[in-house]
Input
Amino acid sequence: MDSYEIAKEWVAALQDSPALQDFCRDTLGGEPVLILGFDPRAPHGSGDAPYIAVVPFADRDGFERSTARRTVLMAIGLHCRERDELANGYEVRGYGLIRRFESLALDALEGCEAAPSSWEGETSRPGKHLFERHLIFEVVEDNTI
Output
């Protein structure tokens, strides 16, 4: 299974996750826009939020490798203007919401044939009131070459 096939499987799993769909509808104001790949002519952004873009990233295999490594990028984004008042300031709610969004997306991938072997992530603020989480997954499989 190459990174494109993995990305397709993951988009289907995200689409079929009732918990993820309910969270987006009830908390973020609408169904998540699911994007397979990345189109530089029409990049995702606050107009699509909430969104999950699943991008096939890299396929590494060869005759002398014992495993095949596939890399898939997932960008999760939401639009949030809300904040909670604290004793001497306020908390921007988007940071907590993006982590919950991420958690539900990861839960949706649990039953996939190509489950992530490892991943790392970062949070970014690419626009006003836009919160994005970038996750880079590695899937390790037996090399069948």
About this structure: The CA atoms of residues 28 and 50 lie 7 Å apart.
